[in-house]
Structures are given as structure tokens and as C-alpha cells.
């Protein structure tokens, strides 16, 4: 995953042009609404990319925000943004599968990260490492790939899912982002029930699927691009 995002980092502005409007209309209000008050909280942003959510949460009053990503190039982009506008966000390069304990955070966010797990074991490790970084009662908010999206149809954010029928958990498929040339992402299929099972097995006590806000008629043919889950550590 790190290598494909290292390549994407060089065209981050173009990808942002495609992704930004849907993120601001749907993903941000949905995630922020489900997360609730972050003022004074400590937040871990896993798969932070160039730091858009980490900066957002710091501006909303989080006392401490740490962003981690497997892509060194993406972390470098995030650090450059921090240099241009110092907010006090710290960024580190880590593979989520082997994420060390960086603290006892009151919340973690994982935006379009978990569907990069290429096996159930890798998915379980990701969830376990996030849980290990949360204080008791801490929350994980994760936007994950919607397994019900119609293939080969442009979605509300411009992405096109290229996915054969009959995929099983862990099977790979690709997503194209309409940049010039198209940016291709390789991700993996995971059913909603599998996310729930793995999170509960990783130490979370409860998993809830949160409603998405800001959806317009026709978005994804009635299906949102991503689904939002909230998991609470026992």
C-alpha cells in the first residue's frame, strides 16, 4: 500500500480536486457528527495521507493529534502542510499492521484505510493495533469501502469501482480516480459483518453503523461511496 500512495503523493493536488467536494459535503459532516465533541481530546489519525483530517480535528479543538501513514511520501506532504500552517500536529511513518503504541488516545479515525487489508489476519492486526492505542472507552470512527457499490459506474466522488461479481472476503479489486492519467488504487473486499466480527475480536466492545449526512439524490445509485462505523473499546 505504501508504494502505491508514494506514487499518488506526486499528484496529490489533482486527486484532492476530485475527492475534495464529496469529502466536504458527505464525509466530513458524517465523521465529525459521529465523533462528537473533540475539544480537549487526543486523536490518532491512522492512514492520515496528506493530513486533511488531522488538520481538521486540530482546528476543531483536539488537544493532541497524531497522524500516521505507511507512505513516507504522504507523510512528507503532511509535514510540509504543517510547516506552512503550524497547528501542532505530529506525523509519523508506520504500517498500521505493526503500529506501535504511541499513546492512550481518546479517539481514532481511519478514513478509507481498513479495506487495504489483504487478508483477514492483516485486517485483525490493523484493528488490534488501533485498539491498543485507545484509552478504555475510546472510540474508533472508520470510513470503509461499501461492498454493495455497483461496479463500473462513476460514483458521487468520481471514483469507479472495477469489481467482478462474487467476490469473497479479502479478494482484491481496483478503483480508478478520474485524474489525468487515471489514478488506480488496489483495495480488498470486506463484508460489513466481517468488519464487525474482526473489531469485536480485536478488543472493541460495540460496533455501530452510523448514518451518512449530506447525501444527494442519485449519489451512488442509492448507495454511499463509503460506510461509516463507530467502534468503542471495552
Automatic annotation (TrEMBL):
Residues 43-138 form the Methyltransferase domain. GO terms for biological process: methylation. Signal peptide: none annotated. PANTHER family: TRANS-ACONITATE 2-METHYLTRANSFERASE, TRANS-ACONITATE 2-METHYLTRANSFERASE-RELATED. It is an enzyme of class 2 (transferase). This is Class I SAM-dependent methyltransferase. The keyword Hydrolase does not apply. Transmembrane segments: none annotated. Its EC number is 2.1.-.-. It comes from the Bacteria. The lineage of its organism: Bacteria, Bacillati, Actinomycetota, Actinomycetes, Kitasatosporales.
